[in-house]
Design a protein that fits this description.
This protein is 38% helix and 21% strand. The protein has eleven helices and 14 strands.
């Protein structure tokens, strides 16, 4: 569908100010985060431009193949000769930033969890963009409002072992004080195998956790090293969780997923990235656009999930909730 859309946009492109825009996705178009930010970009920039996409597919492919996918993305860049490049998420930046820094092509990154110093992006004159940070503090405040009142809490933050997860965990560790945020003890775990994930979820209540915050779960493998569908991981979690489970991203909230959260939305991320790209296309140099951090969360909740765990949403939040049934 996306390829057809891109073709149609190319066919209808007849404006004098049309630009060739290359969007390099770390992941794949079926991944909800990607599809949401892609739509945000298109809706914001409009159909007067020619859009090209390349999907690195690094959530499903083994790490040993990531560099080769980056080489293919670079070949696409050389063929397209874009006026601007949008890099989606950490792996696209990780594998392409050195080559793109040597060009004069403006680059807008989005969904970057890694600190800019990791890639010396603050010294790259043709780079700017948006950082992505899990909204953990606001998420814990929400959980405190939904869960039964308690003076001290203990929560588990669970991630897979992918690149974005590692960067997110580094950030969360920085904002904790002696493993606490306020009066809530925050334990972080990163797992690679599904059986380890299952064990963490099944024993959460026995380990005296009040809630689990499910981060990313898209690179989980079985004991033979085969990739397990993110949908299967999330559905299993929803069916077998022993304590309420919240999410950091909108795509994880559903009747078959997490029960809710104060979450980041890929569409908003794409709109913000596109607004930056528009400024560049209008003549503002990238190094004059200071990178942003996306802190625009939304309250998204599953009615069935809230009901299952017998939680009550307070009135001050209720009017702002986006419900998914």
């Amino acid at each position: 569908m996306r390829v057809l859309l891109a073709v149609l946009l190319c066919m209808t492109c007849c404006y004098a100010n049309a630009a060739k825009i290359l969007i390099v996705e770390s992941y794949h178009s079926e991944y909800s985060w990607d599809s949401r930010y892609y739509q945000g970009i298109i809706d914001t920039l409009g159909d007067e431009h020619v859009y090209h996409t390349f999907q690195m597919d690094t959530k499903r492919l083994p790490v040993s193949e990531h560099a080769a996918r980056a080489d293919s993305a670079w070949e696409t860049y050389l063929e397209v000769k874009p006026d601007i490049v949008i890099l989606g998420d950490d792996n696209a930046v990780k594998y392409l930033h050195e080559r793109l820094r040597k060009t004069t092509t403006p680059v807008v990154f989005l969904g970057l969890n890694t600190a800019s110093r990791e890639y010396n992006l603050n010294q790259a004159k043709n780079f700017t963009g948006i950082f992505e940070r899990p909204l953990l503090k606001r998420s814990i405040v929400l959980a405190q409002q939904l869960l039964p009142k308690k003076s001290n809490r203990k929560v588990l933050v669970l991630f897979d072992s992918g690149t974005t997860s590692k960067a997110s965990i580094d950030y969360i560790r920085q904002i904790r004080t002696n493993n606490f945020i306020g009066n809530t003890q925050v334990d972080i775990r990163s797992v690679d195998k599904f059986e380890d994930w299952q064990q963490r979820i099944l024993t959460a209540s026995d380990r005296k956790y009040d809630a689990v915050f499910v981060g990313l779960y898209h690179t989980i493998k079985d004991k033979n090293g085969n990739h397990i569908s993110d949908t299967d991981v999330l559905r299993w979690t929803q069916k077998n969780a022993t304590v309420p489970h919240f999410g950091f991203w909108s795509f994880s909230i559903s009747p078959q997923g997490n029960i809710g959260g104060y979450v980041l939305d890929g569409y908003v991320h794409g709109v913000t990235a596109a607004a930056i790209a528009r400024k560049i296309l209008q003549g503002t140099p990238p190094n004059r656009i200071f990178p942003k951090t996306d802190s625009t969360g939304r309250y998204i909740m599953s009615r069935s999930g809230i009901k299952k765990w017998r939680l009550v949403v307070p009135d001050n939040i209720l009017t702002r909730v986006i419900w998914v049934d």
